[in-house]
Amino acid sequence: MRKQSSSSSSMASTKLTLLLTTFLFSSLPFTFSQAKSSEDSEPYVGVNIGTDVSKLISPSEIVSFLQAQKISHVRLYDADQDILKSLARTKIRVMISVPNNQLLAIGSSNTTAASWIDRNVVAFYPETLITGVSVGDEVLTTVPSSSPLLLPAIESLYNALVSSNLHTQIKISTPHAASVILDTFPPSQAFFNQSLTQYILPLLQFLSKTGSPLMMNLYPYYVFMQNKGVVPLDNALFKPLTPSKEMVDPNTLLHYTSVLDAMIDAAYFSMKNLNITDVVVQVSESGWPSKGDSKEPYATIDNADTYNSNLIKHVLDRSGTPLHPETTSSVYIYELFNEDLRSPPLSEANWGLFYGNFTPVYLLHVSGSGTFLANDTTNLTYCIAMDGVDQRTLQAALDWACGPGRANCSEIQPGEDCYYPNNVKNHASYAFDSYYQKEGKAAGSCDFKGVATITTTDPSHGSCTFPGSKKMSNKTKQAVNSTHISGAAERSRFIAFSSKELVVSFSSLLFFHLMTPC
């Protein structure tokens, strides 16, 4: 769930709970009639774009970056006019959003809804490829007082689209927190929170009638964090599992190798319980933080890289879910940029694939999954020291790289090409890049306890050629064990972050380990 900035109205916090009880063998898989959306004929991976970023670059630069990275689907948390203008005449498809604080006006007035569509859709379409309108965000669980207004707002906006003859090209829905579904595992026993049925059932009927998706914000990260020791990390990260570690639904005997698939199928079973079988699930948010405080030790670059890389492959492989292998949900990754203006905890500002200056937080490993995210395939990436790291910390990282890390540090010795400028940051950058290239740019090889970052800008200078440079010759020199140099101390940089809590409620969960016969 994306929280509003500190200047917006506060949202109620929610927690993930998991109750372990036994369950009965009862239901069988249901038949699902796949609904085809005119938005896309194939599943896709998009990205959410938040703008709580210090020194945010211009909308035109954002769009150029999206094109360079071959990102073709984006979701905005508002209907930013400048971004919509910049997206004109590109092939990038965009979902715009109605913030929660606008629901009252739109849900209470057809005229206001029509004006919103005219101002934010009709004014830009078709030059800007608007494919969807997301109305509110987790309204039923975060601002329950607005629940009665949700469907009226959606219907008013839909009627405005009908009046403009855009209702078949542009779909309308609303994102839900995972907590609207209870008893999520086994998926076959999942059902919508009965206290919300009065709102969910008519909404689902609307989605069925209009061919729109059920939007769900699904975060396996929070499922794992609140249930360590019950949910295996590998299961949350899409990693291959042995049969004995798979989650098995005893009612359907379907094997689940990923938490996300189980959450998606739980949504399908929940809809089936309300006699809705023709609405597709769309994952409006999912991701994994790359950094956290001491209470979030699994918020790491390695885990974020693994989750998002595997998520992308999972979607683009069109492997579906155990219940519906024929139907693959499209997913919007949370999120494009680290939003450094968010308040604690630390992880809240570290969900992004990139920093605000376009530097990748890590290199996704999605080779063979199409052209999505060009930063996976480029060879021109380097590992350098971050700005603002204190000299002592940087020196320790440099010593490790040149010592136990076995980086080739010969070029930063006195008299060699990369000795100058003679300071810790310059020498550390060279050593970091040497280690990073030596390790094949593997996930986590450009971290050094948070003092290194990946860049696409060649750090070579003068006669000094960095190991990752395309100009690098085949020089081979003896690696040295350590490097001690003088340099001015640098200030540490601290950024304020904000909390993100996903609402997920699991009950009746039990892992059944089925052994494969010899």
Automatic annotation (TrEMBL):
UniProt cross-references to InterPro entries, sorted A to Z: GH, Glyco_hydro_17, Glyco_hydro_17_plant, X8
Principal EC category: hydrolase
EC number(s) reported in the record: 3.2.1.39
Record bears the keyword Glycoprotein: yes
Membrane topology, from the record: Lipid-anchor; GPI-anchor
Cellular component terms (Gene Ontology): plasma membrane; plasmodesma; side of membrane
Catalysed reaction equations from the record: Hydrolysis of (1->3)-beta-D-glucosidic linkages in (1->3)-beta-D-glucans
GO molecular function, one term: glucan endo-1,3-beta-D-glucosidase activity
BP terms from Gene Ontology: carbohydrate metabolic process; defense response
The protein's name in its UniProt record: glucan endo-1,3-beta-D-glucosidase
Annotated source species: Morus notabilis
